[in-house]
Amino acid sequence: MKAFAIDRAVVSRGLVLALSAWVAFTIATLVHVQNAYWAAMPVWVVAQASRGVLLERALFRVVGTLLGAAVGFAILHVPVHPYAQFALLGLWVALNGGLTHVLRGVHGYGALLAGITAAIVVVPSVLAPGASLELATARVECTLIGVLVATVITGLATPKSPAQAFFLQIRHLSADALAYAADVLRHGAPAMGAEKRRILAEISEVEASARLTLAGSFEGYRRLHDVDSLVVGTLGVMSAAVALRSQDAASAGRTEGLASRLTSVAERLRSTSDLLPEETSPIGPGAGGERLSSALARLLEANAALARPLGPSRALPFQRELAVLAPHREWPQAGRTALASGAAAFLAAALAHGTASPLVVQAAMGLCIFPLVLGSMALPQRIAPKLLTGVVAGAFVAALYRLLLQPIFPSPPALWWTLAPFLLVGGFLRAHPRTAIAGVDFNMCFLLASQAGATAAVSPLAIVGGSAALATAACLVAGAYILMPRSSVKQAEEAVSVIRRDLLRMVEPGPGDAIGDWRARGARQILRLSLHLGRAKDLGWRWPKGMLAVLSLGHAIEALHELPETADGSTRAAAFGALRRLVEDPGGTAGELRRLAAVTPDVPLRQVLTDLADGLETSAELLTFGRSA
């Protein structure tokens, strides 16, 4: 029961949320906005843990609502058959559903609202074709009221983003990465497998949350470049240490000094003191030392930049070019979400038009909204049971409210006070960490099904049927997601497939932009893979080996391209030919590269071929990950 204890913070936040929703609804009824209950709905989703995210979410809700209302109104006025209009709606919903996995951070929320609002305008038009403008206008007016009230009331009670704590977390994490690299240089990578998994999982989670943590200010977004550079430097230090240790046994003595230096810098990063200038100098030459030195310099530079106040005249300590990290975009998941949400929107609207039943229209609204909401989630299977619980509970309570209270107190001000206890309960559900997700859906569906303030006379059977229709839609959509296999496994396999594809592009004689793409996407795919593996409970015990070595493999392929014209041409061409089989037979390809290294008199080429063979042998398990199925 302790998990459900209500502390002072939960009570305070619940009261603020309930007050915001009540004030928004009250204002909407006072100015006689159609469907005034819509005004209270933004409160539950705009309110966030930090002020920056709240402000951005409020902005994108308004932008998405305006855009969705305009598109929905335009669709209804295209001079084509209604089913063609519904097809256009499906395409619009599909586009925005896919964008929720392409636009990262808060930006995807605008796309989500653009799809939902268009459906809210189009689907009810089957019962009242001439009311589309009124619906669109009311939706926009209610959104503006709700967002304004939520921003003012909840914004005052919402703390600023914990940016400094976030930067400190990154600093400690980079120190852990340096300590890991030092231990690898001393003892080898296998001894630190669990630590590597932990660091990679935490880096991926921190990087994924950076845009939310730093939302709400231009300075925060400028910091994201330093965060990306720090992530690239951290992964670079770890992978360079693995590559340096695996080269040969003789390197152990040479790397002891590097390990001591890394340990010293890690201790300084864990302290509160700034790094001294001499600690940011290159760590020394040697086999692989240059790459380790470059990665360490990037890591330290990014840490120093994050520790300094950000302003227009900020000077970076080294003026090194910031590393490029490709955006985190889940294209396969975007395609699946687009297909599911677009098809659901078209079929729901067509079904509502074909039956012209108010109950079917209510269910169709849910069939348009729920696939978009769940599809936008990283792990919809985990959220689906909570959404279903919230929707069913909200619809049930709404039916009781409409049957027992609303007929007795149909108009303000009595209406406002009868609604207040329900909003208060909803506020506590939304504020408590254990019920926050289900609380959002409880409040949204309670307001949607209660239709508080509606003056039209409705029979008890229609009231129960409307709530049941909404709950049925939630059961269909959430049930489909619950029965689906966990997507983390598939997403991890997709990340590895991108790694394999990019490596194969790099081994072509004319790689074009492939090398630049790898520099940007290599670290991103490792982060993406770590994120999905960390979230997949059934894969938590089997992280593929070679997650860092594959970065060294890409570095070695790049080095093979950069060899001078005087290099052994036939051996180099044979190496590229062998590398085209790196996915089908990484072990055999490594053996062929070692044979080529043994016969070539070209010393730089021999070293590159040896590095390629080492990288292939170490990353073989990653390169074949997911292919056995």
Q: Could you describe the 3D structure shown?
A:
The chain starts with 7 loop residues before the first helix and ends in a 6-residue tail after the last helix. Among the domains are: 163-307, A middle domain of Talin 1 (Up-down Bundle), CATH 1.20.1420; 501-623, no CATH class. 72% of the residues lie in helices and 0% in strands. Mean pLDDT is 87; it is low at 284-288 and 312-319. Helix 14 runs antiparallel to helix 17. The chain contains 24 helices and no strands. By secondary structure, the chain is an all-alpha fold.
Mean pLDDT: 87
Task: Please outline the major beta sheet.
Answer: none
The number of strands is: 0
Tell me the strand percentage band: under 5%
CATH topology of the domain at 163-307: A middle domain of Talin 1
Shape: elongated
Amount of helix: over 70%
Number of helices: 24
Q: Unreliable runs, pLDDT <50, ≥5 residues?
A: 284-288, 312-319
Encode the helix/strand succession as letters.
HHHHHHHHHHHHHHHHHHHHHHHH
* Whole-angstrom Rg: 28 Å
What structural class do you assign from the helix and strand content? mainly alpha
The CATH architecture of the domain at 163-307 would be: Up-down Bundle
* Separation, N- and C-terminal Cα atoms: 43 Å
CATH class category of the domain at 163-307: Mainly Alpha
